[in-house]
Amino acid sequence: MQRRHLLFTAATALAPAAARANMVWLLPTGYKADSFQGQNVARFARSVEAATAGSLRIQVQPDNQGVPLAQIAAAVRAGRVQAGEVIMTGLAQDIPIAGADAVPFVVSSYEDAQRLWQHQRPLVERHFEARGLKPLFAVPWPPQGLYTIRPVRSADDLRGSRMRTYNATTVRIAQLLGAEPVDVPMSKVGQALAEGRIDTMITSAVTGVENKVWSAFKFFYEINAWFPKNLTFANAAAYAALTDAQRQAVLQSASAAETNGWAASRVAATESAQELRRNGMRTEPAPPLLQPVIRRLGERFSLEWLQSVGREANEVFVPFYAAR
């Protein structure tokens, strides 16, 4: 009888560990599986499964298949899914510091973008922790460049142009450059070009390739307006429920995913610019006479962002600018 009692006690003690030993996480994302971001998240999931010998599987649900992009953060926070991927600027209304990487003309290179993330990350982690969330890794999209029909040598060449806009920031940029803002979704850019409603726009080389914009645009200037990042994160309670070995596997796989994702973003930017050139477009750095205007706009947008976010914003931009 005593032996049976001991066996029962041991089995009961092991039950929670056994239950934790084989888990499936759902990870919805709003982005396509064949994008470099989608491929990077899929590699992360495979890495976790391999590192845990299959005891933790992460099922990626791309392209809004599981949860719509705008609802992913809430779904993870509520525990309806265990993890998710969103564009970080989409969280800025609830977590203003998440919008730092979308302030225009602050960073001008991948190195700048990484330094900004180093200062921004501890604050994002703090806010996520307060909401029961755990950030895992962040990966930028290629930088936003300037598409034009005619060559640009200075800001004066943009005055009077019709610039495609899609949010409040791009409207402000157009206005400050003396251009006319024209609200056009990316899916309608081809039609707007054919109708002569736009002749300039700011978006990435990747987006330009995806939409074959070389039918009208002839110039792409690498002004690197901003580097928006996607953030992959987990429900903190789901993460805490893992074994120590599983948690270590998640963190190690996330670290590798961040490193590999930044490298993949660089490759996507380079290959997309090459594709634009193969289709007859000229790709050039920001024109020398335009660069000081861009810097002044960056200072202006930075100051406005600092004023709107408050003291916490200084924890990002003060050390970022001091290290320049």
What would the keywords be for this entry?
324 residues, six-stranded mixed sheet, globular, 18% strand, alpha/beta, disordered N terminus
Walkthrough of the structure:
- The chain has 324 residues and is α/β, with parallel strands linked by helices.
- 48% of the residues lie in helices and 18% in strands.
- The protein is built from eleven helices and eleven strands.
- It has helices spanning 2-21, 36-51, 72-78, 110-130, 168-176, 189-194, 205-210, 236-240, 244-278, 291-309, 311-322; strands spanning 23-28, 56-61, 83-87, 133-140, 144-148, 162-165, 180-183, 200-204, 219-222, 229-235, 282-285.
- The chain has a six-stranded mixed β-sheet, with helices on both faces. A three-stranded antiparallel β-sheet has the order 3-10-4. It has a two-stranded parallel sheet with strand order 1-2.
- Strand 6, helix 5 (168-176) and strand 7 form a beta-alpha-beta unit.
- The protein is globular.
- Residues 1-16 have low confidence and may be disordered.
Topology (elements, then pairings):
Layout lengths: L1 H20 L1 E6 L7 H16 L4 E6 L10 H7 L4 E5 L22 H21 L2 E8 L3 E5 L13 E4 L2 H9 L3 E4 L5 H6 L5 E5 H6 L8 E4 L6 E7 H5 L3 H35 L3 E4 L5 H19 L1 H12 L2
Parallel strand pairs: 1-2, 6-7, 6-8, 9-11
Antiparallel strand pairs: 3-10, 4-10, 5-8, 5-9
